[in-house]
Design goal:
With 359 residues, the protein is an all-alpha fold. Helix content is 65%, strand content 2%. The protein contains 14 helices and two strands, in the order αααααββααααααααα. A hairpin with a 7-residue loop joins β1 (158-160) and β2 (168-170). The model has no long low-confidence stretch (mean pLDDT 91).
């Protein structure tokens, strides 16, 4: 909104010309989201605590010592959503279709998570797996189909292969199920990782920073040509969303760091995972997502391995899945698990960015 309000003044006052620059608006979006989180956080924590008085917020499939966290309010992801969306709408170019795509993916999955969280408080069960997956597929599938049928200038169904210069595979209509798998998979992977205080939100900050760089370079013709990566016209505006995502995540971490004052809940985890997956699809970095979001891939993979192993052999590979619970039962302190997983996530994000020159 402010972008459209302030940029026209650049014709008469050179001072306002600065609002044309994506980098400047990204910085403002980051600060705006951070400040909104700090201002609204204490109030929201109080409201959620009052709303959920007497309601159980601890998952049943967690180690016994998590019972000590009983009473900690959930649905704190509302804070992230408000900060991200408000900041993006303030500073992004709202004529950009990619901005609206990522906003609708994030908001839609957030609403689905909110419904699931509310139902869990009332019934302890929440939505069934079929209901949750079905809603995710319908929502994300409809948005992807609309982009495929009514493409914007610069949209492509090509898949970029990392490490190889100019290797592009045109998926055609198969792009829709492939992109759907990326976004829904990322959404659920973050959801599985959200089991310790601050564990899931830390890698989101790193992924948001990595995608901010990728979005800016992908949307810049000169930079994309130099690095031999796909140039997606208009994708640079997603950098503003990434800045808002980083700022909101940092603000939420203030309240979610160990010991947490609030949990993000599905309203946060489903939305954040969908946002990361959506950024990967829209910036043509789908095959870099397993590196940038490597921690989430490992956590989701540990669950799959555990389930398959138990069904086929009757034996468990891990003491408990996802993987962070395995280390808990091995005697690791919660803060140690969190910080070490953050370090791994940071290294993986850096490795993903180095692939830009290894072509």
């Amino acid at each position: 909104m402010l972008y459209h309000l302030l940029v026209p003044f650049a014709r008469d006052h050179i001072l306002f010309n600065v609002f044309r620059y994506i980098t400047f608006r990204t910085a403002l979006a980051t600060v705006t989201a951070l400040v909104l989180s700090f201002l609204l956080g204490p109030w929201l924590v109080r409201k959620l605590r009052a709303l959920q008085a007497g309601g159980e917020t601890i998952r049943e499939d967690t180690p016994e010592r998590h019972r000590a966290k009983a009473g900690t309010p959930t649905m704190g992801g509302i804070l992230i959503l408000v900060a991200v969306l408000a900041s993006t709408l303030l500073w992004a170019n709202l004529k950009n279709r990619y901005v609206w795509m990522i906003v609708l993916i994030t908001a839609g999955l957030g609403l689905l998570g909110l419904l699931d969280d509310r139902r869990k408080l009332r019934t302890r069960k929440g939505l069934s797996i079929k209901q949750k997956f079905g809603a995710q597929i319908l929502l994300v599938g409809a948005l992807l189909l609309s982009l495929y049928l009514f493409p914007v200038d610069g949209f492509s169904t090509r898949l970029a292969i990392p490490f190889f210069k100019g290797w592009l595979v045109n998926l055609g209509w198969l792009w829709i199920p492939f992109a759907l798998l990326v976004i829904v998979g990322a959404s659920n992977a973050v959801n599985l990782t959200d089991g310790l205080d601050g564990l899931a939100i830390g890698p989101v900050i790193m992924a948001g920073g990595a995608f901010a760089i990728l979005a800016y370079l992908t949307g810049n013709f000169i930079a994309a040509e130099y690095l031999k990566i796909p140039n997606v016209k208009g994708a640079g505006e997603l950098t503003v969303f990434c800045g808002a995502l980083v700022g909101a995540s940092l603000g939420f971490l203030w309240f979610n760091s160990y010991p947490a004052q609030v949990f993000m809940g599905d309203v946060g985890s489903l939305a954040l995972g969908g946002a990361i997956g959506g950024l990967a699809v829209l910036t043509k970095a789908e095959l870099l997502l397993p590196l940038i979001g490597g921690l989430y891939v490992v956590e989701a993979g540990s669950v799959i391995i555990q389930v398959v192993s138990f069904k086929l052999t009757g034996k468990r590979v891990f003491r408990m899945a996802p993987l962070h619970h395995h280390y808990e039962l091995a005697g690791w302190a919660e803060p140690k698990i969190i910080v070490r997983f953050w370090i791994v996530s940071f290294v993986l994000a850096l490795l993903a960015l180095t692939t830009l020159k290894l072509r």
